[in-house]
Amino acid sequence: MEFTYVFLIALIVLAVVFVKKSVIIIPQSETKIVERLGKYFATLKPGINIIIPFIDRAKEIVTVNRGRYMYTTTIDLREQVYDFDKQNVITKDNIQMQINALLYFQIVDPFKAVYEINNLPNAIEKLTQTTLRNIIGEMELDQTLTSRDTINSKLRGVLDDATNKWGIKVNRVELQDITPPASVLQAMEKQMQAERNKRATILTSEGEKQAQILQSEGDKAATINRAEAIKQEAILKAEGEATARIRKAEAEAIAIQRITEAVGKSTNPANYLLAQKYIQMLNEVAQGDKTKTVFMPYEATNLMGSIGGIKELFKSE
Fold first, then answer.
1. Kind of pairing between the strands at 80-83 and 96-107
2. 164: number of Cβ within 10 Å
3. What is the Cα 225 distance to its own chain's centre?
4. C-alpha torsion 247→250→254→259, nearest 10
5. Nearest in space to 21 (alpha carbons), one of 66, 52, 65
């Protein structure tokens, strides 16, 4: 009886162990490669999977956890990121610097990732380092510092093509740090300071030039305004003198017309006006402080007589 109980207990234990070894639960976004008697058998899907204990076994692969390589039977199908250590690279102009890259990739074919490459994380790291050295070696220092997007694009394209046979899809590559030597950094700092000083000098010169231009334009505008004012003043003065002369001529014309109407046709009005000019001239000559003798032509006497007659005629009217 005791042997029977022991046998039953052992049978139950073996059954529990057998069931536990037979049932594998796979979480979502993960998988396992199962080998039967050392040969590939199946790629397990998320959920409950049944295998034959001691005949089927999960294939171990290498993964990276916090920078350390570890062996596990679970394959993560989600996008993963590898942060590689800094490496020394040499540019086309023989400048040595350190670069740190981040690699985002995803396992799309677990079979190839297990059987086509040994130690997948190490292979990806070495391939990334080699490709990065080749790309940087074709570029000068200035291009390297200003063309991160170009480097990322080239690196991703090369890695994606090279890792395709490993069942890997490289989604993105990012250069995290680019560290030139200390001497190069000092030279770059001096160059940047010189460039800033140059820009400040140029801006100051442009400001002074602009101020001179504005001052010149102001002087020019003031000169033009003064010339325009003088011109307008001369025009107004000329117009005033012309108007005065016109008024004077009109007044003389009216006077001649009235004289003509007053003396009639017997006396020439022009003679009358001429006689008036003679009288005005005689007055100016007589105003001198010295004794003067003035000889008058005979015609002037007649003209003055005409003036006297005309004046008498105006008085009678």
1. antiparallel
2. 14
3. 40
4. 100
5. 52
Closest CA to 89 of 130, 140, 133: 133
Q: If we measure between CA atoms, which residue out of 85, 106, 86 comes closest to residue 29?
A: 106
Helices 269-286/298-316 angle, 10° precision: 110
Separation CA 111–CA 40 (nearest Å)? 9
Least Cα distance to 172 among 88, 82, 69, 77 occurs for 82
**Distance of alpha carbon 260 from alpha carbon 269, whole angstroms:** 6
Q: How many helices (H) and strands (E) does the chain have?
A: 8, 12
Q: What are the two backbone dihedrals, phi and then psi, of residue 215, each rounded to the nearest 5 degrees?
A: -65, -45
Task: Find the angle CA(295)-CA(296)-CA(297) to the nearest 5 degrees.
Answer: 125
**For each of the chain's 317 residues, which pLDDT tens digit applies?**
566 777 788 888 888 888 888 888 889 989 999 998 889 999 999 999 888 888 888 888 877 766 667 778 888 899 988 887 788 888 888 888 888 888 899 999 999 988 988 888 888 888 888 888 898 888 888 888 888 888 888 888 888 888 889 999 999 888 888 888 777 777 777 878 888 888 888 888 888 888 888 888 888 888 888 888 888 888 888 888 888 888 887 777 776 676 666 655 555 656 556 656 656 665 665 565 555 555 455 455 554 455 455 444 444 44
User: Measured between alpha carbons, how far is 25 from 19 in angstroms, rounded to an integer?
Assistant: 12
**For the chain, how are helix, strand and coil distributed in percent, rounded to 5?**
60, 20, 20
On whether the CB atoms of residues 142 and 191 are closer than 8 A, the answer is: no
The DSSP element (H or E) to which 290 belongs, if any, is none
pLDDT at 289: 56
Tokens of 181: 């030597």
Q: Which residues contact 279 (CB under 8 A, 6 or more apart)?
A: 304, 307
Distance of CA 306 to the CA centre of its chain: 96
d(CA 59, CA 273): 143
pLDDT at position 215: 86
